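We were asked to recover a plausible sequence for a given structure. The inputs and outputs are reproduced exactly as logged, with field labels preserved.

PROBLEM: sequence recovery
POSITIONS: 333
GIVEN STRUCTURE:
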């Protein structure tokens, strides 16, 4: 008996028959140009050392950092974000070392830009690597004082810009600091210095390994940054934070962390149409790396995670896997 079956006219599987077809109609493509490699540079140190809580990631003296940056460039990554690891002896309650013109970070940036003039260098603006209490600002009456902290962030930003940083990235989450820093940059003839604002930085439990890497974890102890970093429960507040920073002069906005906040990345990009970066933070990276090393997840899960962040709307991604993934992309080209 003949049965007239109603087969579908549209068969989406036609476009999945082989990898060439899949690549041809791909909606989201991750390239080396989308990746930013963070680097930890340690004061009064030579060579490199292991960070116990971060697989395959090292702290470098400036000599080691220059060698690492050469490898990063060869991998195809053109942008780095530098984070200082400050000698304990140079930390104090006000983060005074951050505003010294001849400080370690200033010298490191100058050395990097001298050897790699074409690389894009992002410099972190925050006091937590420099304070003996691990907070991103000055503590007055047992609270992080917003306005007094902003005064120091302005000075720190000018020093980093003068040192040669292409992009200044305030990660502190103090109210009003973007407008104040922008005004100071304009006034001091740094009109072309780009402001990348950590506009929606959440008070997250995914930051632990990073704090170990820069040496602020032990200083912070059980103290919380929830009075200035955003609550993970909030979405509309993120839009308000981003809108404020855009109005104050941010050129690019950052969402941090990335994968637990894909909805925020998408919402921000869709709402503002401004260059939007995301930070796959240390906890995200380490979680995936551990699962891969134990054989619980396939190696390709790292690439998949980054594609998901790009698909959500991120124009670029800070990730500790940038160099590794960029090499993988080049092999598959």
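RECOVERED SEQUENCE:
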């Amino acid at each position: 008996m003949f049965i007239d079956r109603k087969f579908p006219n549209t068969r989406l599987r036609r476009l999945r028959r082989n990898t060439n077809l899949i690549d041809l109609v791909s909606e989201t493509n991750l390239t080396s140009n989308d990746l930013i490699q963070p680097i930890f540079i340690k004061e009064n140190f030579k060579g490199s050392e292991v960070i116990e809580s971060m697989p395959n990631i090292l702290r470098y003296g400036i000599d080691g950092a220059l060698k690492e940056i050469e490898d990063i460039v060869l991998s195809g990554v053109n942008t780095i974000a530098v984070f200082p690891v400050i000698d304990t002896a140079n930390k104090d309650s006000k983060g005074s070392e951050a505003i010294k013109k001849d400080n370690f970070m200033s010298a490191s940036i100058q050395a990097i830009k001298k050897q790699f003039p074409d690389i894009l260098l992002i410099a972190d603006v925050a006091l937590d690597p420099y304070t003996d209490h691990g907070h991103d600002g000055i503590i007055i009456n047992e609270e992080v004082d917003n306005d007094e902290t902003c005064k120091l962030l302005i000075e720190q930003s000018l020093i980093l810009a003068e040192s040669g940083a292409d992009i200044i990235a305030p990660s502190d989450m103090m109210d009003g600091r973007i407008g104040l820093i922008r005004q100071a940059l304009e006034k001091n003839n740094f009109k072309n210095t780009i402001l990348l604002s950590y506009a929606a930085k959440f008070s997250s439990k995914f930051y632990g390994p990073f704090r170990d890497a820069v040496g602020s974890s032990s200083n912070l102890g059980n103290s919380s940054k929830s009075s200035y970093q955003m609550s993970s429960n909030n979405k509309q507040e993120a839009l308000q934070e981003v809108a404020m920073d855009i109005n104050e002069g941010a050129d690019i906005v950052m969402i941090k962390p990335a994968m637990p906040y894909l909805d925020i990345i998408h919402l921000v990009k869709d709402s503002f149409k401004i260059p939007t970066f995301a930070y796959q933070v240390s906890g995200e990276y380490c979680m995936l790396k551990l699962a891969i090393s134990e054989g619980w997840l396939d190696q390709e899960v790292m690439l998949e995670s980054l594609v998901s962040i790009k698909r959500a709307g991120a124009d670029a991604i800070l990730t500790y896997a940038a160099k590794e993934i960029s090499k993988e992309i080049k092999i598959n080209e």
